[in-house]
Amino acid sequence: MKYIRSSKCHFGKWITESKLTSIREFISEMHRVVTWAIEHHESDILNGMKKPSLLLAENLSRCESWLTARAKKNAFAEAHALVLGTKRSADELNKPYSRPHHNSSRILLSCTNVNIQLNPELKGFDLLVDLRCFDSRERAVSVAIPLKKNKMFNKWKSKGTLCASVILTDKYVQFSFECEKVKNTEGNIIGVDPGAVHVINDDEGNHYGSKMMPLLQKLKRKKRNSTAWHACREEILEYIDHSIKQIPFDTLRLLVLEDNRKIKNKSKLKSKSKLKSKSKLRGRLSKNMRSVLTGWSIGRINSRIQMLTEENGVSLRRVSAYGNSITCPYCNHREKANRASQGEFVCVKCGVSRDADTVGATNSLARFALGTYGSQYKQMFLVKHPYYHSGDTVISSNFI
């Protein structure tokens, strides 16, 4: 399977002020052209206009700019990708589409406007990025940016192929690498469940990142958006990265992840006026718990797991989180009362007591392995968890 990784090489103190001025002027004008293209061709792109049709000379000529035709094509191509990407994300999240806003501090450039030289004959530099053919006001204008390779650049260069396009800002150049990894055909299968007490919990009872809750409580005590708040927030993100790396990806074949990317959207308490029964709050989280979860970055957890599974050739599958933490893995009895507390699961029917996060991870793995698309892993799951639904002769269809 193929995946993309990136590395940033910063300019450093050696770049001249005149080059920085030219770069900033170029980025500003590219941003204006991208914004113009979105405003004037958004409806056409949403109605199916292909990129080659958008890049026709008659469309480019309508936008007045000192950029060359090559640079305009880069800007229009970026606008096309932004609109389609925003529409695709809105459809996946079942949200209404809204016009995308281009980041004014960075631009995407293809090989038509940038030339990358590895190991140029420069004293003290081993990388050169040459911006060319972007200013129609002057002939043969170019900006050469000398850079130094870093650890991440060398790592991904050794594993993949350097892409011809780059992302340019006034502080760094971001390079992309296309890597390929063969999927593992042997190894263990696990289900994992992200949590606030532990960063990650698996179906084998292992917990990774057991100091998560103290960090969230620490963040809660900080004034939002203060220097201390941002420092604590960064500490949490680094702790998430460190904890997820502890998962033995090199021994895995399949990882099933409980999909709770929308948990924050569904965590608010419904007002009593909107409930049919004022005595029931539908299990929503309290205001105090929601304030703690403000620092819980489920997006970071999901992205890091996806990145590490790709790099190690592990198949990643996401399953619905519905009912996973309140369904008994022994007798298949589902009831909210089964969740005795935040960290404890006690089945009210058969009396089984287990760690709540382990139950959720086990049910996540079962949802996929015993379902239609995971049949090849069914026998492995039943060998790993022979007790699963041992209280029932038939596995309930409404569970899988």
Q: What would you say this structure looks like, in words?
A:
The protein is of the alpha+beta class and 400 residues long. The protein has two domains: 2-180, no CATH class; 188-384, Nucleotidyltransferase, domain 5. It has eleven helices and 14 strands. It has helices spanning 17-46, 51-54, 57-60, 69-92, 151-159, 212-220, 227-244, 287-293, 298-312, 356-369, 378-384; strands at residues 2-10, 107-109, 114-122, 125-132, 142-147, 160-168, 172-180, 188-194, 200-202, 207-208, 252-259, 315-320, 344-346, 353-355. The strands form four sheets. Strands 10-9-8-11-12 form a five-stranded mixed beta sheet, with helices on both faces. The radius of gyration is 26 Å and the shape is elongated. Residues 264-283 and 392-400 have low confidence and may be disordered.
Overall pLDDT level: 87
- First-last Cα distance: 28 Å
Q: Using the CA coordinates, give the radius of gyration.
A: 26 Å
**Uncertain runs with pLDDT below 50, 5 residues or more?**
264-283, 392-400
Give the name of the CATH architecture of the largest domain.
2-Layer Sandwich
Largest sheet composition: 5 strands, mixed
What is the string of SSEs from the N terminus onward? EHHHHEEEEHEEEEEHHEHHEEEHH
How are the strands of the largest sheet arranged? 10-9-8-11-12
Total number of strands: 14
> CATH top level of the largest domain?
Alpha Beta
Strand content: 15-25%
Share of helix among residues?
25-40%
Number of domains: 2
Computed structural class:
alpha+beta
CATH topology of the largest domain: Nucleotidyltransferase, domain 5
Shape: elongated
SS element count, helices: 11
